[in-house]
Design a protein that fits this description.
The protein has about 900 residues and is mainly β. The chain contains 14 helices and 59 strands. A hairpin with a 6-residue loop joins strand 49 and strand 50. It is globular.
Length: about 900
Amino acid sequence: MTLTAGSRLGPYEILTLIGAGGMGEVYKARDTRLDRTVAIKVLPSRLSLSQEARLRFDREAKAVSSLNHPHICTLHDVGQQEGVEFLVMEYLEGETLAARLEKGPLALDQVLRTAIEIASALDKAHRQGLIHRDLKPANVMLTKSGAKLLDFGLAKLQGLEAGSSTAGVSALTTEGRNLTAEGTILGTFAYMAPEQLEGKEADARTDLFALGVLIYEMATGKRAFQGKSQASLISAIMSFDPQPISALQPMTPPALDRVVKVCIAKDPDERWQTSHDVMLQLTFIAEGGPQAASSASVAARRGRENLGWIVAGVLLLAGLAAIALYPRQSTPDARVIRLSVSPPEGSTVESISVSPDGRRLAFVAMGPDGRTLLWLRPLDSYAAQPLVGTEGAAWPFWSPDNRSLGFFAQGKLKRIDAAGSLLQTLCDASDDPRGGTWNQDGIILFSPNFGSPLHQVSAGGGTSTPVTALDASQAETSHRWPSFLPDGRHFIYLVRSAQPDHRGIYVASLNSKDARRLVSVESSAAYAAPGYLLFVRERILMAQPFDATKFQISGDSFPVAEGVGSFGESGPTGYAPFSASGTGVLAHGSVAARMTQLVWFDRTGQPLGPIGPPGTYTEPALSPDGQRVALGRDDPKTGRSDLWVLDLSRGVLSRFTFHPSNDYWAVWSPDGSRIVWASDRAGHDDLYLKPSSGASQDELLLESDHVKWPDDWSRDGRFIVYEESNPTNPKTLVDLWVLPLSADRKPFPFLRTEFNETHAQLSPDSRWMAYVSDESGRAEVYVQTFPRAGGKRQVSTDGGDQPQWRRDGRELFYLAPEGKLMAAEVKGGPTFEAAVPVPLFGVRVPAVSIGSFRNHFVVSPDGQRFLVNTIAEGASSSPITVVLNWTVGSKK
């Protein structure tokens, strides 16, 4: 029955319903006699008791009410009114352990504290001859004063009305009907001991089995015994042992593995015999006993399941904090410990940064909704917390005092306190920055966009000024990924150049324009104490001795980790995913292929079905007849990109380019007979052409020292529009150019400004050019007349990227920030007029590449369907590896 507010059960006034389940309904109520708030559990009518059973129940309830213990929910009273049986209990505020576990595993210190409190409560009850019989997460309440054990004796109550008429496993089919009498079965299956499943009488050791299962789940976030059906779950409990906790949480003290292993022994005689024994063992671990101090060195393994977040609190208990996290150098007896860790559920990590003291890990992750956020993970906790106000974040870096973080978002350079209390915009950047670094004098050095030199700005904010200059004589195209050296004046950075022999990591100073190359690599580098230069070469993280006072490398480089990769090998950024503290803590990720899936969506965002297999795809381009898609496909082994063509009707994927270089950004000719694309096979990006059948040799279409990427081919076949970055002209960034396909093929500029103009798309009648510019400080979609620019109109209203026209030119689509697909109706006539854009639906695309790749979606000719290169269902982030004492054993 359901009671309404204001109704009464004896002296108890019902206030509100707070829960319901198989064991009845729970109400918040007021004891009118003592003027206190209580909880009332109204038992189901099926628990109506015979006179004999009531006497037994009263005796049981009296015994339970005598349990005066800080971690047992007190039973105040039992009653009956008009056939309604009810229990009056202590009212608790908090959340159940079951609700807490839905968020993931608990930190080790909380696991131990909660387990000790439960063991203490069980010890009190067992000494008075009371067995819980139904210990599970839903029966543990986490409150401000600690854990509280609920429903003591209710499992026995269920047995009082059953007798022994129902036997064996058949009772498992009745939800909530957990019977006590010998020959019947009680408890929630996953926490039931083998003797319960066999219908035998429970004793104190039955509760200890459930306690062991609880500890396992608290520590790992996973159930110890699992099955897809009742039969398979029972089989798992009766016949198999779960993986040790340390296999899922590698820094778990071995002593805790032993406690749980003994708790869940199949034979009750092989378990701990009393709750007091378990409580003493857990207390011993929490206080850092010698068994807890021995912690195995666990190496990260390829292909292994993500192992969960490490906990520096465990390191403290294990006695490793003094040698792993906090000293400036590792002690002689320190050991290297490698741990694979995972991002928050449903998120994919984009970039990482370890704090200088090695105590915290900052990372940018994209959630299931496609948004990127800056997260902070103290290494003394399992939990990572998002920093409010950091939507759209990219490329975080720490202040030298460990108190603040710099990052990029919405075309700005920003900073935020690590506590999340103060967020500040420092200066303009762009939607495509390339990293920053912060010195002890309050200077931030950063790369504002992908084609710029380095700039500096005060950590308090202001106008940025250039620090380096691109050397046109060396065809430099970008300075990026700066990192200060210990003196705070010198820094290292990555130089991109059209001349391969000039690329690499350079060292320079805030006080001088001179720069000197240290190593020839294609991705970012960093200094790590006590004197190493870290960089990635052919997907191996390397360390080379480096004198940070003489700014010289020496000796031989040696490998630190394999399979690290570099975004510079599979994309445009040159970011190598690793970060090192000054205390021997190293974190690195990998760019193992992020799988995407081509999926058709209708205008409401309803998926219409996938096309082809999942893959590492980029920049899909739909053929004019809508039958084929040309796209980039990254090779996860080499990191290189080739072009492939997907037949949409058959789902068959065929390779189109075969050169051992990067080939990308395919554009179809208006009749679909040819494809033009960009390739870096000559050391700089040039334009190539061949028939779409692939039956001919690659033809060099346009060659120069400048970086070039094709955007579109006019419907009349006369023009190819492309982007160009010219490092010899400091007054421009990325410009839009036009290549006439007439006899002389002499390119001319369409837009050449001090800003970035990208993603050009011609209207079907070739009268208008839609494109993206960051002239306002963020990427927006604009339209101008073509072939001579004029009559500029802004289409997007709150940021926009990757515009595409409907085949009839009456609608323009684009991506808004955070992956929202927008549509703007275009009116016909001699002038361009567009309606206010409206959102269609959100798409989940690789956020790190928005603004870098040409497009993540294509539009069907009628504008009613959208083929989106979305992150594949079930795709997860590559694991992050945290290495403690990584320098141990290395020789300078």
